[in-house]
Design a protein that fits this description.
The chain has nine helices and six strands. The chain is of the alpha+beta class and 242 residues long. It comes from Frankliniella occidentalis.
């Protein structure tokens, strides 16, 4: 590499090191000059410079929340598209990486971010076996973020996307687990000793603390627990998207 290439490589390498720390990524993407420089050196420079610049952009593109900003930065999509269409033998690998990154950023244009809400379900005779079965049924449902169980109170607290209808969760548990479930309104009591904490106002105000109850006969024998566990069982999903 020439002296100019050495200086350019050192600059890009520093950006790559910064991008490896996720805490730096938002600031880097918001600085359009940084991103535009990385895009600029993707063409007409040494293989080492282009490879490092592409690696840096790939790191930035891994952050789903930042993809829309990266996509809108002037020159990014056009440059990736040009490199992806290259047929030069020495750029086969770079072209494939450009296509994948371009596809990720293009898809981010259709992503709609939703604010999560909490749904509290009361499930009579909830057991530890039920908790496993419930999570298996709900973990693949798009929009379900997390699931927390309290065996003592016989409740299941779900964090879901705001667009999800709580009654659809009741129906899933009825169909797949043969479990009765009730959607508990914010502020209503679960037992005579414990109160449910206030939840976001997403259910309509009605006289009954339960919006709707799906009574279903169990298709399997139900073993009553000799004593309730005193701690909650909790399962949390690492990512909102599938």
């Amino acid at each position: 590499m020439t002296g100019a290439d050495d200086e350019m490589f050192n600059t890009v390498q520093r950006y790559k090191i910064l991008a490896e720390n996720k805490e730096n990524q938002a600031a880097m993407i918001k600085d359009s000059a940084v991103v535009q420089f990385l895009v600029y050196v993707l063409e007409g420079t040494s293989i080492a410079v282009r490879d490092t610049a592409m690696s840096t952009l790939e790191l930035l593109g891994e952050n789903i929340k930042l993809r829309p900003t990266l996509r809108k930065t002037f020159g990014v999509m056009e440059s990736l598209e040009a490199i992806a269409s290259s047929s030069a033998p020495e750029e086969v690998n770079l072209a494939e990486r450009a296509r994948k990154l371009h596809s990720k950023l293009e898809q981010s244009n259709n992503v709609v971010w939703e604010v999560p809400k909490e749904v509290l379900l009361r499930i009579p005779e909830l057991s530890s076996e039920d908790c496993t079965e419930i999570w298996q049924a709900l973990s693949s449902v798009r929009g379900v973020v997390s699931c927390q169980f309290n065996l003592e109170l016989q409740t299941c607290t779900l964090t879901v996307f705001s667009s999800m209808n709580p009654q659809s969760l009741v129906q899933i548990l009825s169909n797949q687990c043969s479990l009765d479930a009730e959607v508990v309104k914010p502020g209503s009591q679960v037992s005579s000793q414990d109160s449910v904490p206030d939840l976001p106002a997403y259910l309509p105000e009605e006289d009954s603390p339960v919006v709707q109850k799906k009574a279903v006969a169990r298709r399997r024998p139900k073993r009553r627990e000799s004593s309730w566990f005193t701690r909650a069982a909790s399962v949390i999903v690492d990512s909102f998207f599938w």
